[in-house]
Amino acid sequence: MKKFGVLLVLLMICCATVGCGKKAKLTGLYPVKGKVTLNGEAVEGVMVTLVPENFTGDARSASGKTDANGVFKVQTMEPGDGAFPGNYGITITKRENDGPALSEEEFNAARDSGRQIISTSSNKFPPKYEKVGTSGLNVTVVAGKNPDLNLDL
């Protein structure tokens, strides 16, 4: 009988934890995609961030990184899930390391020795696009299908 009680407790714990590892899905997001060009040329590796005009209700930032063709899809929680409806300012940045990157061997040696690893990077895109107040870019995301956001800078 004692074994039955232990098994019952273990079964209850297992049942209680089922689903605990699942990610919460946000609802009410709508796809937003587009392309970034600079002087007519597609730009790879830039981060396009949609910053809500006001952070009320479900407002959250959404962002996406451009591929080799300058194409991006924004995400709020999961790749390509989109953004909530609302008005957004847009920032565009391209971060790159300012110094030589550590090799995997150097990184592991530094980590294993307990040394602090500091990496510095800077924006390699025109600085005017780094802040909502100076970028001059904005978009309104609507419930439903949104037109492509083509940012020709």
Percent of residues in helices comes to 10-25%
Secondary-structure class: alpha+beta
Just name the CATH architecture of the domain at 26-97 and 119-153.
Sandwich
Report the top-level CATH class of the domain at 26-97 and 119-153. Mainly Beta
In CATH, the topology of the domain at 26-97 and 119-153 is named Immunoglobulin-like
Q: Low-confidence runs (pLDDT<50, min 5 residues)?
A: 3-12
How many E-type strands?
10
How many H/I helices? 3
Report the major sheet.
Answer: 4 strands, mixed
| Approximate shape | globular
Alpha-carbon distance between the termini?
A: 75 Å
- State which percent range the strand residues make up: 25-35%
Give the SSE order as H and E letters.
HEEEEEEEHEHEE
The overall pLDDT average reads: 81
Molecular structure report:
The protein has 153 residues and is α+β, with helices and mostly antiparallel strands. The protein has three helices and ten strands; from the N terminus they run H-E-E-E-E-E-E-E-H-E-H-E-E. It has helices at residues 2-17, 104-113, 132-135; strands at residues 33-38, 41-42, 47-52, 62-65, 71-73, 86-93, 95-97, 121-123, 138-141, 149-152. Strand 1 (33-38) and strand 2 (41-42) form a beta hairpin. The longest helix has 16 residues, at 2-17. It is globular and about 50 Å long.
